[in-house]
């Protein structure tokens, strides 16, 4: 099933700064405006899948937390439980004429948590928690809204 | 780089029916309305990535063809050339209040073609060509626009 629980915003509570901040302010601001991202996981046999999911930035841990309807029974959850690494992308096209693009891609390790303790009050259910190892963003710099997408420079780094 | 070349529509030419049609008419109609999908590939070491891409349905071959700026130099192209299987999803949220979702996910094998012969006139450049092996769609049946997403039944099959 597609996840449609919209708890993403609630994770952006006004609390302390996280112990580890991997994202830029521009990336966090962008992520907060988007409801859906796409999560890639691999089955143990190597077959890939990619699913639209709702998400939230966990400010305390610096992770991306993904919940949703029937999460624990989902194949993606089981893929992560079996050791799959993950990639996750949030992107949109704020203008189609002229074409303008924005994205944040996050690659990393993930945990399949049936009973998350951290941030549980916000989440309340099984989640996939992504620990970013590499972040690539495009189109989020000041002035990028006026730039031809082919001229945008990805901001790519290990974290 | 993000691919933004919009040649997707041009593949929907009015020609003969493909030799193999894996998609339903509802799926093809939906795909024709969307500009961007997200493609998951794996590096040889197992690390995953997921990228927004423009795409087109290749009616002659029954494949999904993915082109774009700087494709041949991209990591996803090299991943496919190195044997990565792929997953590709096209989805959107036609309504947010109430929440309504639609998607087509395609899992399969892929080719990295530097000089595609089939449909070359439409494409004109290196492409990733996906041969569907499994298709899962949600929210495309008549009446689904009025249904709670949690009640939607995925239409999932091997092809």
Fold and architecture overview:
The structure is a homodimer of 159-residue chains. With 159 residues, the first copy, chain A, is mainly β. The first copy, chain A, is 13% helix and 40% strand. Chain A has helices spanning 25-33, 75-81, 120-123, and strands at residues 36-42, 48-54, 56-58, 63-66, 86-96, 99-113, 127-138, 155-158. In chain A, strands 1, 2, 3, 4, 5, 6, 7 and 8 form an eight-stranded antiparallel beta sheet that branches. The radius of gyration of chain A is 16 Å and the shape is globular. Residues 1-17 of chain A have low confidence and may be disordered. At the A-B interface, β1, β2, β5 and β6 of A face β1, β2, β5 and β6 of B.
Give a short summary of the structure:
2 copies of one chain form a homodimer. The first copy, chain A, has 159 residues and is mainly beta. The first copy, chain A, has 3 helices and 8 strands; from the N terminus they run αββββαββαββ.
Task: Give the biggest beta sheet of chain A.
Answer: 8 strands, antiparallel
Instruction: Estimate what percentage of residues of chain A fall within beta strands.
Output: 35-45%
Structural class of chain A: mainly beta
Largest protein interface, residues of each chain: A-B, 39 and 39 residues
Order of secondary-structure elements of chain A: HEEEEHEEHEE
Euclidean distance between termini CA atoms of chain A: 32 Å
């Amino acid at each position: 099933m597609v996840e449609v629980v919209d708890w993403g915003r609630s994770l952006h509570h006004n609390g302390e700064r996280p112990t580890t901040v991997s994202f830029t302010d521009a990336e966090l601001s962008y992520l907060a405006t988007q409801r859906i991202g796409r999560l890639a996981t691999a089955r143990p046999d190597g077959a890939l899948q990619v699913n639209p999911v709702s998400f939230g930035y966990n400010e305390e841990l610096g992770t991306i937390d993904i919940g949703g309807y029937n999460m624990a029974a989902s194949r993606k959850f089981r893929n992560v439980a079996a050791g799959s690494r993950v990639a996750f992308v949030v992107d949109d096209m704020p203008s189609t004429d002229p074409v303008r693009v924005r994205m944040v891609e996050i690659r990393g390790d993930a945990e399949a948590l049936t009973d998350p303790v951290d941030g549980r009050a916000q989440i309340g259910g099984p989640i996939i928690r992504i620990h970013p190892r590499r972040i690539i963003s495009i189109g989020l710099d000041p002035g990028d809204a006026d730039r031809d997408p082919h001229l945008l420079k990805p901001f790519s780094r290990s974290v």
